[in-house]
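User: My instructor asked us to take a sequence, write out its structure as tokens, and then describe one feature of it. I'm not sure where to start. Here is the sequence I was given:
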Amino acid sequence: MQEIMDKIFEIAAKYEKKSLVEMTLKGSEEMGELAEAVLSYQGVPGCGYKKLTKDDVAEEACDVLIVVLAVLSRAGISQDKVKEIMNGKMDKWLEQAMKSNTDT
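Assistant: Let's start with the prediction itself. The structure tokens for your sequence are:
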């Protein structure tokens, strides 16, 4: 995963011409496409006609990850800072998930 993160940060820093605002809007667009893929894959009424698959969900989720990491890079946030924040967020998520499992 580190190699992928390095590559995304490098491409965003060296080659991406979109502004931070444009990239953030692109992230919203990609999230919408992921939502469409998930709804279709799950066969939600009105969405199943697209016949999207688990592979489509994976493709769209990866697009979201790429854009989000590129936004972080373009915002000048270091990979170390991203990792620090992510670790704290994951710890909190785990704590909440474990708590909700004991509540049932």
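For the description part of your assignment, you could build on this observation: The chain has one domain: 2-76. Try explaining in your own words what that tells you about the chain.
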